[in-house]
């Protein structure tokens, strides 16, 4: 994922996770079961920089073959 798609996806998942966590405190705790994993996965996607570095190296190698 590039920076823009990672930011959009991670931000959206963090927002949905926080919304579900907030809803769970006012209603039942069932949304908490879904909200916590979505929130954690959103943070992981948002902070993952290693994949972009791997793609850059891969693109450099493909450029040298041509």
Topology of this structure?
Layout: H1 3-26, H2 30-47, H3 50-65
Question: Can you characterise this structure?
Answer:
- This protein is mainly α and 66 residues long.
- It has one domain.
- It is 88% helix and 0% strand.
- It has three helices and no strands.
- It has helices at residues 3-26, 30-47, 50-65.
- The chain starts with a helix and ends with a helix.
- The mean pLDDT is 81.
Order of helices and strands: HHH
Number of strands: 0
Taking the sheet with the most strands, its summary is: none
The figure for the number of domains is 1
Question: What is the terminal-to-terminal distance?
Answer: 24 Å
- Count of discrete alpha- or pi-helical segments spanning 4 or more residues: 3
Strand content: under 5%
Overall residue-averaged pLDDT value = 81
| Residues in helix, % | over 70%
Keywords:
mainly alpha, 66 residues, 3 helices, rod-shaped, single chain
What's the short story on this structure?
By secondary structure, the protein is an all-alpha fold.
């Amino acid at each position: 994922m590039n920076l823009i798609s990672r930011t959009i996806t991670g931000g959206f998942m963090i927002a949905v996770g926080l919304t579900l966590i907030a809803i769970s405190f006012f209603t039942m705790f069932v949304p908490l079961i879904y909200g916590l994993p979505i929130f954690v996965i959103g943070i992981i996607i948002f902070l993952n920089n290693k994949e972009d570095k791997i793609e850059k190296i891969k693109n450099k190698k493909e450029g040298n073959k041509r």
